[in-house]
Amino acid sequence: MPAFILGKKSAQSQQFDKNGERMPTTFIDTSSCHLIDIITPDKRGYFSVKLGFGSVKNIKKPVKGELKKAGIKTPLRFLREFRLEDYKEKVQSIEEGGKKGIQIGEVKIFTGEVINPTLFLKSGDLITVTGTSKGKGFQGGVKRHGFKGRSHTHGASRDERAPGSIGMTTTPGRVFKGKRMAGRMGGDRVTIKNIEVVEVKENGLLIKGLVAGAKGGLLEIRG
């Protein structure tokens, strides 16, 4: 069954499986995920759902109007779209009582409602989780790219972690684009596939393994 929900990285722990082997676990809090809008092909040329998550004190006026239209009073912090073009046969757009919504099997979700993972996920399912990795700031080649560095002997003085030569002689006489050098590290969009769901609750998911991002960071979950 198709699954799509927003959450935040809550806690990392560990537990033992049925075979008595230790496994790392991560709990993803999905307690405040709302369905904001249904985007149909006749409107923008593709089929997707727009979700909102988290709360914040101040939001911009266009976002405020969008939430008001959906009947959501909570000022939501994150808004994300999930494309459903691959699930056209399983997900249908519906409208009842003047409210737009979607139907997945026998489950109906309308705009303004809170989405919880029990609607389309169960223990043992495999999901895809996308997050933003931790920012490491400006780092050198050894930490950023795994360079070996120079030897600590034979006259090396304070440059054991230096990257070495980066250029060439007259031809081509420049440094190629994409050369691995020192620079900002982290803060990348990281997707991890085939993560097993250990337990599903009304307010979140317990998954096997670890996911990218700091505690409290936004996560996109797809089934």
Helix and strand topology:
Blueprint: E1 4-16, E2 22-29, E3 33-39, H1 41-44, E4 48-55, H2 61-70, E5 76-83, E6 91-96, E7 99-104, E8 107-110, E9 126-132, E10 137-139, H3 141-145, E11 183-185, E12 189-201, E13 204-208, E14 218-222
Antiparallel strand pairs: 1-2, 1-14, 2-13, 3-4, 4-5, 6-7, 7-8, 9-12, 9-14, 10-11, 12-13
In short:
With 223 residues, the chain is mainly β. It is 9% helix and 43% strand.
CATH-defined architecture of the largest domain: Beta Barrel
- CATH fold topology of the largest domain: Elongation Factor Tu (Ef-tu), domain 3
Element order: H for helix, E for strand: EEEHEHEEEEEEHEEEE
Residue fraction in strands: 35-45%
Q: Any idea what the radius of gyration is?
A: 23 Å
Helix fraction bin: under 10%
Number of helices: 3
- Write out the CATH superfamily name of the largest domain: Translation factors
Largest sheet: 6 strands, antiparallel, barrel
List low-confidence stretches: none
Morphology call: elongated
What report would you give on this structure?
- With 223 residues, the chain is mostly beta strands.
- It is built from 3 helices and 14 strands.
- It starts with a strand and ends with a strand.
- The longest helix is centred in the N-terminal third of the chain and has 10 residues.
- A 6-stranded antiparallel β-barrel has the order 1-2-13-12-9-14. A 3-stranded antiparallel β-sheet has the order 3-4-5. Strands 6-7-8 form a 3-stranded antiparallel β-sheet, with no helix packed on it.
- The chain has 2 domains: 102 residues, Translation factors (Elongation Factor Tu (Ef-tu), domain 3, Beta Barrel), CATH 2.40.30.10; 83 residues, Double Stranded RNA Binding Domain, CATH 3.30.160.810.
- The model has no long low-confidence stretch (mean pLDDT 89).
